[in-house]
Amino acid sequence: MGYNHIGVTMNDMRTGRHETTLDRAGLAIAVGGVLGGAVATGLAALGAESGPLALVAAFMLGSLLCALAITAVAAPVWIVLHATGRRRAGHAALVGAATGFIVFVFGQTYGFGMFYAPPSDIQTLLFRWASAAATSLVLAAIAALIGLIMWRVAYRWER
User: In whole angstroms, what is the distance from residue 50 CA to residue 5 CA?
Assistant: First the structure.
């Protein structure tokens, strides 16, 4: 019988599953929020004027808003995946990337065009959407990494 890199047989891989507890899931959301705050702090540091108070504010607000977004957007999707047995690291990365991409495009396109936007011509509108897609792809990659880290915090392999 062959062993994989962590000493679990392939038969065990078929019969075991990833499990979590409510406290580990809550800790994972908190870790995701803190990582989002770190990203917000990094973006603020790249800005024109970022004094120490601005960086602290970026971290606090970024952490809070990221934890809220994870809870409101990604958690319901993950609950469905968890209930259907799709609990692997790749699933976590996919949920992070997809929900991150959607949220960031939503924010940059005035809610996919559903909310009031300043009047603009078609070239400006197309540029806004292209820019939103491009920057959201970068942020989706970061969100996928955050999703992977959250998955590692939340899940343990159980036979």
Answer: 45
Confidence of residue 1 (pLDDT cuts 50, 70, 90): very low
Q: Round the average pLDDT of the chain to a whole number and report it.
A: 87
Q: What is the mean pLDDT of residues 63-81?
A: 94
pLDDT, position 32: 97
Give the span between the Cα atoms of 15 and 33, in whole angstroms: 33
Distance of CA 8 to the CA centre of its chain: 29
Which amino acid is present at 96?
Answer: G
For residue 91, which of 35, 138, 148 has the smallest C-alpha distance? 148
The candidate with the shortest Cα–Cα distance to 103, out of 95, 118, 89, 47, is 95
Is residue 158 within 8 A of residue 11, CB to CB? The reply is no
Other C-beta atoms lying within 10 Å of the C-beta of residue 138 = 12
Are residues 96 and 147 in contact, defined by beta-carbon separation less than 8 angstroms? yes
Only one residue has tokens 């000493």, namely 7
The rounded percent of the chain whose pLDDT value lies above 90 is: 60
